[in-house]
């Protein structure tokens, strides 16, 4: 694991069908998180501290992927949902509490251009 604050992942790489369309979607959807767009010879990424999320044009898996981004508060979840839909995502669950997970689980879901379920979640007090 990298130094600094603990995290569950080091990086995530997601194949996409259309890099330009997906870049526009993720740039807009992740703007509320304050991510930085990074490019390298191996692809296009979005970074927040030591955590990287990469997209690259390639073969897309047969099944969809579920990705959940940790939001620092409910306002970021709300802003993510609005930005993601504005960037071309399809609403897959408006912002709100999801008590079936736990009492403080506040989340929103959007389908990206490849049909992946992208979530922003704030765990609040639980």
What distinguishing features does this structure have?
126 residues, alpha/beta, four-stranded mixed β-sheet
**What share of residues are in beta strands?**
35-45%
Largest sheet: 4 strands, mixed
Mean pLDDT: 88
| Gyration radius, in Å | 14 Å
If you had to describe this structure to a student in words, what would you say it looks like?
With 126 residues, the chain is α/β, with parallel strands linked by helices. Helix content is 20%, strand content 39%. The protein contains 2 helices and 8 strands; from the N terminus they run βαββββαβββ. The chain has helices spanning 19-30, 74-86, and strands at 11-16, 36-40, 43-48, 51-57, 66-70, 90-97, 106-111, 117-122. It has a 4-stranded mixed β-sheet, covered by helices on one side. A 4-stranded mixed β-sheet has the order 5-8-7-6, covered by helices on one side. A hairpin with a 2-residue loop joins strand 3 and strand 4 (51-57). Helix 1 (19-30) runs antiparallel to helix 2 (74-86). The longest helix has 13 residues, at 74-86. The protein is globular.
């Amino acid at each position: 694991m990298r130094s600094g604050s603990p995290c569950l992942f080091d990086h995530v790489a997601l194949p996409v069908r259309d890099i330009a369309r997906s870049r526009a979607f993720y740039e807009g959807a992740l703007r509320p998180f304050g991510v930085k767009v990074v490019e390298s010879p191996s692809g296009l990424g979005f970074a927040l501290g030591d955590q990287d999320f990469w997209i690259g044009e390639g073969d897309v898996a047969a099944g969809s992927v579920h990705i959940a981004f940790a939001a620092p508060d409910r306002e970021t979840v709300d802003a993510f949902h609005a930005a993601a839909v504005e960037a071309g995502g399809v609403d897959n669950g408006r912002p709100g509490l999801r008590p079936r997970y736990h009492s403080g689980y506040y989340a929103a879901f959007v389908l990206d251009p490849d049909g992946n379920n992208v979530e922003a979640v704030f765990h609040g007090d639980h």
